[in-house]
Amino acid sequence: MKVHFQPHCCHRCSIFFGMGVLLCVVFITVNNNFPTAERKLQKRQPANNSEWNWLIPAFTAASPQTTKVVEMCSPENGMQDIPSHIPASHQTFLRYKHCRSFPRLLSPTPCENDLFLLMAIKSTAIQVDRRIALRSTWGKRGYIQGKRVKLLFLVGKSSDRIQEYPLQQLLEWESRQFGDILQWDFHDSFFNLTLKEIHFLNWFSLECKWAQYVFKGDDDVFVHTSNLLEYVKGRDPSDHLFAGDIIPKAAPIRLKKWKYFVPVEMYPGKRYPPYAGGGGYLMSRQTVLSLGVAASSIDLFPIDDVFVGMCMQNINITLTHHSGFKTFGFKKVVSQFDPCIYREMMLVHKLNPTEMWTMWSLLRDPKLKCSINT
């Protein structure tokens, strides 16, 4: 039996078929270029890097194509009386500071049983050149003076992009390659450094509490790791130790244009408790564990260094000032980039990656000669 198609019917079918193919192509293209989670991230991007972002869906490191639905953290009830005259970033902080627990996205390799010094460094996705510099200089993993050391980078979710590509894939590659990325699902911003602090403390108490000492710092500091080990030689990690560049009587900054501005509504006191400059400080295992307990019961504060000082005051631990922690750089010296000066330091803040490699090579030069007075 022959079937005869009318020409106009065939033409109509072709049109419908063509439109269907076109729609499928568009749908696939859109989904490949803008995954569901990424589209949500773009819509919920904070207006500036100071604001908190609580609405980012979590990715699993093992299966980056899978989106895990996370219960969103809502503004706290009873916070309607937030003063309208304070900056929007501070208002957002107050509305969401009760949000203290976020999923982990990337985990480092397990802490070894004989780990002596853990170096936990605050970083962001875009600072890949700093991480490379640290891994190949003072943060190189392995043994120093017979003591095992381990490098760890603490990061959140970043809105930074390179040529329109998000940097999450870069962090996932670094995690597979080096095993030193510890990432959580909150927006990486200045105000969220306190979130980074409490999440690290919780991770340490669960997965790395046998590390004897912890150095915590920024990714633009130069650390003389051997000097840290010399400093704790003969000490007991079960005793309290918190050493750094201690700021004993800092006053809250009340000028809005400053990065560290804190309104009276957020901190009415005239002085902060003693705290260490955030460029870097050294703690014993016992102090880190005690700090974690204290941090779990203290309201979050937008400046992480001060928050740590509040926690230390709460548990009545004395902070030890050490002149070798140059968290604000050098003052009154002839040359700020002198290996004979650096070799006596614990850390120096701030160095770019090129300066980091240069100073590292200078300090390792067997021909380096320094006067006794240096």
From TrEMBL:
This is Uncharacterized protein. It comes from Dallia pectoralis. The lineage of its organism: Eukaryota, Metazoa, Chordata, Craniata, Vertebrata.
